[in-house]
TrEMBL record:
Residues 53-228 form the DNA primase/polymerase bifunctional N-terminal domain. Pfam families: AAA_25, PriCT_2, Prim-Pol. Residues 1-44 are annotated as: Disordered. SMART domains: Prim-Pol. This is AAA family ATPase. GO terms for molecular function: hydrolase activity, acting on acid anhydrides. Residues 30-44 have a biased composition (Polar residues). It comes from Rhizobium meliloti.
Length: 778
């Protein structure tokens, strides 16, 4: 009975069948009730993969494009396998956004439709392979004979005659084989399947068996039988330890390694990324560097020099082997046997293959050794983390020059880190952040543009701001005030995204406490993250304000603050973008006079600030200072018109100067630090102005020296007015004090041994990359 029911689900003759042939085959091979079911308007539109993708996203199921066949990149020589993702971050870029999906298929009209499995879609797939040389149907028959038939559920027939049995997602279940026999595995958390309805170039296609539809199939996905979950969770016996052929004299070649890498997203976790580099190094030696670097360059997190920096620390014959790459490729959909056959002329896999006649004995033997099930069968079994070896991290691996810090705001806000902009009420932080987003998306305006948040914007690309305080009308008014040249109507306008939640469905919680699960990231946040990961040139994301997104006791509970910080840090790592939150400062009885005072005034537990890489604070100047500054600037004094700001916490180098802002008629805070002049400005203000002037001169390719032909006093016409007026001795004293404080440094130019040119720490001359403009005295 079981053999007959299983056999009906498979047919070798179904392989590579055309569209008409497959319809005839299905009608002949399925039970009468199934064969009689006629496709309706909701059945995936076979032959039109874009239409199929749109039907899935209309049902709320995220999709992403996959290659319809293998292809060779003519520029890099890299080989991509069929069914491999076309998105830079693989399955993690899956989207339900129609605009994004249409853009994908406009670029790749024949792309197959990929669907991630696991928590994101609510199902996993039991993948039974029956293409030439595979016997998954026999293995499944043996399993059902040993246990029980699979329950009725949604079944998809693949283009080669195999099947995907869909079952409801099980927490802790990841894409793997567990103790499943040969030619059967699962696609769960971290995996994906090609969607029913997808059509290949030769006319073969994937199709629901039994008349299921894209809009209704999820309701008919069954719970997985316990015996199947137990087998998948039962660890496989360690059969092989490396991905090598039987003949050890025939190691994997470069072409094979490249094809395996085509199934692995370069934006995987950091440790997995390092393991892949180590494995390629171990397999190919020095010849593997170009392959590893080209693979990494496909990712959104790629930074030139990162691969080289890690590569220098690897030792031949030690560390991770190619089996790690093979397993990650398999998880990404690679057919290891087919790849090995293609490159070596024989079938090969990292898992043991069994003769069909021995399947039943194999299953019984493996099940006898399976891990005992806990008394509470409902508790999820977490996936085992990759083993950490402390011996891989001896300091001799860090060779050569360390990679330079990449900045969003030069010398102040790095790229790829989580941070915070905190300010007192009515300060204008949201407007200032919007201007930062505008400069990132539209361009900063050159080295002499007014600084923002203490420096010049150097990281340009797409920026995304999500605000829960301002509606669309207010955002429109602010954009209109900032974008006076109409840049938003140029292609650059597509790079600036501002989401006013009050006009987009209302405020959303991104972090909250669940009674059963504790602190969690909400589905809304996960969906936002998925969309952000799909933006290749993403540079800046801001959530404004933090309190509206974090429905947690941030002020009282350090663990809540740390949870949010960890979440933001992970998003920054996965996207390579700077992730900022806008936050409030508490009212202070005493005036804030120093950056340390400002840090203490930030609301929330210390874990909230300590858990982020950077915090920038802004607060109104006290009345006396504000009036003095307004008089110097020649503007009328108004409360809150003068604002001070600076970095109050940074993990790493950051310019910690106190900037002075004046509110413009539009309400925007404009940095007046460099040009501020008074009859008797404070020493700190003069030194700050000097630092800013030194930085601007270096960025422009005309750096100052302390004395001499390019000296500060000799070139004082290039200094702001308040510095031009002071005596030579006092100017020299200011420079000396700034040098002693580390606010400016002496640097040697290219080809010179003497460090005499002034710059700020981390500046273009300070790191040895400065170029002089024509006519600069040297």
């Amino acid at each position: 009975m079981w053999a007959d029911s299983t056999a009906r689900r498979f047919s070798r003759q179904s392989q590579k069948r055309s569209l008409p042939q497959q319809h005839q085959h299905l009608e002949a091979s399925l039970p009468t009730s199934t064969a009689a079911a006629q496709p309706n308007s909701e059945t995936p539109s076979i032959g039109d993969n874009l239409a199929v993708a749109l039907e899935y996203i209309a049902a709320g199921i995220p999709v992403f494009p996959c290659r319809v066949s293998g292809e060779l990149d003519p520029h890099t020589g890299r080989v991509y396998g069929p069914k491999s993702p076309l998105t830079s971050n693989g399955l993690y870029g899956a989207s339900t956004n129609e605009k994004i999906v249409r853009q994908w298929w406009r670029r790749n009209p024949d792309a197959l439709v990929g669907i991630p499995t696991g928590e994101k879609t609510g199902f996993f797939a039991l993948d039974v392979d029956v293409k030439e040389g595979k016997h998954g149907d026999v293995s499944l028959a043996a399993l059902e004979a040993e246990h029980a038939p699979l329950p009725p559920t949604v079944v998809v027939q693949t283009a080669t005659g195999g099947t995907h049995f869909l079952f409801k997602h099980v927490d802790g279940l990841t894409t793997s084989t567990g103790s499943l026999p040969a030619d059967i595995d699962i696609r769960a958390q971290g995996g994906y399947v090609i969607a029913a309805g997808s059509t290949l170039a030769d006319g073969t296609f994937y199709e629901f068996l039994g008349g299921h539809t894209t809009s209704g199939f999820m309701a008919e996905v069954a719970e997985a039988p316990k015996w199947l979950v137990d087998i998948v969770r039962s660890p496989r016996r360690p059969l092989r330890h490396d991905y090598t052929p039987a003949n050890d004299n025939a190691p994997a070649g470069a072409a094979e390694v490249e094809e395996l890498l085509s199934f692995i997203s370069p934006d995987i976790g950091y440790q997995d990324w390092v393991n892949v580099l180590m494995a390629v190094h171990g397999a190919l030696g020095g010849d593997g560097f170009a392959i590893a670097d080209a693979w990494s360059a496909r990712g959104a997190k790629y930074r030139k020099g990162d691969v080289a920096a890690r590569w220098k620390g690897f030792t031949a014959g030690k560390g991770v082997t190619l089996s790690t790459v093979a397993q990650l490729a398999r998880d990404g959909g690679a057919d290891l046997s087919a790849i090995a056959t293609k490159h070596r002329g024989r079938q090969h896999d990292v898992t043991q293959k069994m003769d069909p006649e021995k399947v039943e004995a194999f299953v019984a033997k493996e099940l006898a050794k399976k891990t005992p099930v806990a008394a509470n069968d409902n508790d999820p079994v977490p996936a085992e983390p990759r083993a950490l070896s402390i011996f891989e991290w001896t300091v001799d691996r860090f060779k050569g020059e360390a990679p330079a810090v990449q900045y969003l705001v030069d010398g102040v806000i790095p790229l790829g880190v989580p941070g915070m902009v905190s300010a007192a009420g009515d300060t204008g932080k949201s407007f200032a952040l919007l201007e930062l987003h505008r400069r990132v998306a539209f361009g900063s305006g050159g080295p002499f543009a007014t600084p923002i948040f203490g420096g010049q914007v150097v990281g340009e690309g797409t920026s995304v701001m999500i605000t829960s305080e301002d509606d669309a009308n207010e955002v429109h008014r602010r954009i209109d005030a900032l974008d006076t040249k109409g840049n938003r109507y140029t292609p650059a306008g597509k790079r600036m995204i501002v989401v006013p939640l009050p006009s987009a469905g209302g405020a959303r919680a991104f972090w909250k406490e669940d009674k059963k699960q504790g602190l969690i990231e909400t589905d809304d946040f996960k969906r936002i993250c998925d969309q952000l990961k799909d933006i290749g040139d993403l540079r800046l994301v801001t959530f404004d304000p933090l309190a509206s997104f974090a429905h947690l006791p941030l002020n009282e509970d350090p663990s809540a603050g740390q949870f949010v910080c960890t979440s933001l840090s992970r998003l920054a790592t996965e996207t390579g973008a700077t992730i900022l939150t806008a936050h409030h400062m508490r009212k202070s009885k005493a005036p804030i006079e120093t950056l340390a005072d400002a840090r203490e005034a930030i609301r929330g537990s210390t874990a909230l600030v300590d858990g982020l890489r950077l915090a920038y604070a802004m607060w109104p100047a006290d009345e006396a200072r504000a009036k003095r500054t307004c008089k110097s600037l020649g503007i009328q004094y108004q409360p809150n018109r003068i604002v001070l700001g600076g970095v109050v916490k940074a993990n790493g180098a950051a310019r910690r100067i106190m900037s002075t802002y004046a509110r413009s008629d539009s309400g925007l805070l404009v940095d007046k630090t460099a040009g501020l002049g008074t009859s008797a400005p404070a020493q700190d203000d003069l030194r700050t102005a000097l630092v800013v002037a030194v930085e601007a001169a270096a960025n422009a390719g005309s750096p100052f020296t302390k004395t001499g032909a390019s000296g500060l006093f000799e070139m004082r016409e290039r200094l702001p007015e308040e510095l031009r007026r002071i005596a030579k001795g006092r100017l020299d004293a200011l420079a000396t004090e700034a040098l002693e404080r580390g606010e400016i440094v002496r640097a040697a130019a290219r080809g010179e041994k003497t460090a005499k040119w002034l710059d700020v720490p981390g500046g273009i001359f300070a790191i040895g990359l400065g170029n002089f403009t024509t006519g600069t005295p040297r």
